[in-house]
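Thread amino acids onto this structure.
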């Protein structure tokens, strides 16, 4: 059973978003990291670039597979989690504190349209 964080919203592509003020932190869900297995590399997006909702923004590689990260809400990449450059396994240790990147100038309406924790749990049950 995957851990579902009650303080984030989810995409059906298994990314999560947490809003803190004017920043939207984005990472991958516990379900996603468990499916990938041991994460060995994270390609982080360039800071300053704008990405639309549904656009491929980065890649996470594990010993089993590489997986595209699909941007869950439109916004400008204002920061990346540089700790993941040398320690991608932090995602496996706690995927909800090891965000991938931060968006500014994000679309609040798209965030509101993401799955809340209960809806995400229901979605996972259908997989």
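Threaded sequence (127 positions):
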């Amino acid at each position: 059973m995957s851990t579902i964080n009650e303080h984030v919203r989810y995409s059906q592509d298994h990314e999560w978003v947490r809003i803190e003020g004017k920043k939207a932190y984005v990472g991958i869900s516990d379900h996603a990291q468990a499916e990938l297995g041991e994460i060995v590399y994270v390609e982080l997006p360039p800071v300053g670039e704008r990405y639309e909702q549904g656009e491929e923004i980065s890649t996470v590689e594990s010993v089993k597979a590489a997986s595209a990260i699909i941007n869950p809400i439109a916004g400008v990449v204002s920061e990346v989690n540089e700790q993941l450059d040398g320690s991608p396994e932090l995602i496996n240790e706690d995927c909800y504190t090891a965000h991938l990147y931060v968006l500014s100038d994000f679309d609040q309406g798209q965030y509101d349209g993401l799955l809340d924790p209960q809806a995400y749990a229901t979605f996972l049950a259908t997989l």
